[in-house]
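User: Fold both of these, please.

Assistant: Here is the first one.
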Amino acid sequence: MQPLAGESVVVIGSGFGGLSSACYLADAGADVRVVEKNEQLGGRASVLERDGFRFDMGPSWYLMPDVFERFFADFDRTPTDYYDLEHLDPHYRIFFKESSELDSVDPASEHHSSVHGDRVDITPDLERTKEIFEEYEAGAGETLERYLEKSRENYEVGMEHFVYEDRPRLRDYLDLDVARNARGLSLIGSMQGHVEDYFDHPRLQQIMQYTLVFLGGSPSNTPALYNLMSHVDFNLGVWYPEGGIGSVVDAIVDLGTELGVEYEIGRPVTEIKGREGAFLLETPDGPIEADLVVSNADYAHTEQELLPSPGQSYDADYWESRTYAPSAFLLYLGVEGTVGELAHHTLVLPSDWDRHFDQIFEDPQWPDDPAYYVCAPSETDETVAPEGHSALFVLVPIAPGLEDDTGTRDQYRDVVLDDLARHTGTDLRDRIVLEERFCVSDFASRYNSYDGTALGLAHTLRQTALFRPPHRSKGVDGLYHVGGDTTPGIGMPMCLISGELTASKVLEDHA
């Protein structure tokens, strides 16, 4: 007999964490129903389709393919049963804005552009990448190899013993096994200090730190442990699932359907009520009954808006005191013709990117010299745009909670497109045939995210591992949480694992 046979579970929200937990719980025999407030499944991994253009609205980097392989293997399947992957080359392109006096690359080297500043392609060829590093700083090629070896060690040990194995209490860390596995991990200090121990050139430091945007942090507030992301980047590679990230959402939904999960869209849950050992979930279309509830809605929203105060684990002061990942200003653009110098993934970084991080975390304001990301999937996938056109989006990380009225969006849109033309040589301004925008207030309204954060709780030292909110509700028996605010944290792979960890808590309590 299956361990959860006869139990009914409602999963609120259909992000990667909710979809993952639904699969594990259904596989354990539960009757699982996923209810989603928006018009499509996927949570922040929504898809925007307009006039023949298709955009991934949220995550667009397919990293850590081993996590997806492990997830599908848990159900005797593989990712290729559902979608094909293409290894991107280059992984991504970086445009550094105006070169400073600190830059000393050879003007004849192929990654240098005297017109638009430095341009670097990070490719699957590690030896070529080492040569690029060497051009910036003598000895940096071999240093990169040493850095990546440490990153690989942190990744392998960290994933096995501290990511897939949840440790929600302090006492879970106070044993010899944990101490032995943690030996040598980069646990102390910030990413800024860790990278500075290896590289002097500011451009190289930026290359090694850009992955922090996936964790919602800055070099100064993210623990050095997350140097493991460089193993993800340089060694495991950057991939593209055919059809975009939306096809990965479809794959997990299809898997869930095969396991017996039911899905309902356009039905927001407005209140969670306990009822004689079970739950009654209020919705505009009438109540839903369940024995158990897993909330993939943002943790703060679940606590502050869906639960009565006696059932809340944290008060308003707790949520106000947290450090949140950035929000984002997004432009989804359909343009005539090609996108010139842009790669599938392109980063545009200022000389002083510390100022941009300060304008997110220290002195919140619209960045005056932004660092930003451009995704042009039409460079890889011709199906995402009509013939003769390109699809892309531009993402500028900004502080959550900023005012984003129409006038501000209009003004900043011009700032970004001007900057893109100036520093990459790709001028889109006269070729745009479709334009949609998404910003702070949209994250708040569409995803119920606190202050319009795009990702949730940042990965600061005080918000990592056991310092993130737990999967089990402290105030309500039978209520569980899943997603980026819980362990192991932010990002599609981490949310997939979060679904497994949450399901394991349900099984421990109710199997």
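And the second sequence with its predicted structure:
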Amino acid sequence: MPETTTFPRTRSGRRRGGALVALVAAASLLVSACGGSAHNTPTARAAKLLAPPRVDTSNGLTIDGEHIADKALYDAAKGKKVVLYSAAGKEAEDLTIARFTAETGIQVELTRLPNNKLAERALSEHGAGRLEADVIRLTDPRTARKFGEAGLYVPYRTPFHDKLAAAGATVDANWFPGYYFVNAMAYNSAIHTENPPNGWEDLTNPKYQGQLGIVAITTGGTLSALTRFQIEQFGVGFLDRMAAQDPRVFNSTSTEVDALARGEISIATVSFNNAFGAQTNGAPIRLVIPEEGVSASEGPLGLTPKGADNPAAQVFANWSLSKSGQKFVGSQGFVPVRTDVGPVQAGEYELPAADSPRFHLLDEEGFARHAKADQALWKQKFNFIG
């Protein structure tokens, strides 16, 4: 079930329209039409993002020289499917699934819901003894903690957990981050053809008055991470200066990116993966990785009791932390949790690695310390009720 979203008005009630919308109408039509091509399947798009690796199944599953599953596990997984519940974006998950299936031969059935709705469904099914999911991907580590306490996530250790510890990533008994979500900036390249915005302070530049788009902090953990980053790097006054821009506040990242592509806004804070996907599909969007860096949050992944008994789900978890899986999510505009995979390009962009000083992660401890107060502050600054 897709997330239901709205296009709220700015605090002044004004909507942008007219000339800017017409300016990029043709590009928006291109984005809308691109899904119909026979050469635009998820598998084909995945191959365009990153060249397929070498796969060896002579003794289990080995991809680009890294052993993903031994023969017994891989043989047991063949012919089985993985049921995946995910709070990540559907397009990104479709690409990841297509790549996983192409490399392993294992099919995946996806149910995609926003994090809070997914948590409600999963906890309800688990409580009734009817949980269908083998693997669950979330966007908020606080929910992952609840899942572990409820027995919805169960202990599972991949062959690559030592790589997590070496990278300083979360190593929880019941879940691990499959990748990091990143928030950065973007602008409409059909509108800003000269002297385009190039840093966080541009979000507060009066020349972009009425052109700024942001996503409500109540949308999910990635926005809490962005707000904490902005406060720590630029001070609380930065929120005041953004609010003075009369920004348009969106209830989801996907609707914000769509509005940016149509020219209803011309500059925005964005989920890097969402905006990169739109640019890849032809939208007039350019991303900006400011000098100060980007905000990041964990994307928890864990096996359910059903998944722990499913060899195919175990292969999916292993693959997710393999070099092949990590490089592929990096090519989509996420940041790999493993720091030993080397630089990963997302098209023309290279995001800071997880061990870079320009990578600003809000982990579970940071959420516990700051998220509630930051949300109250953000809602007050932007006069937001929701």
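The two ends are 22 Å apart (CA to CA).
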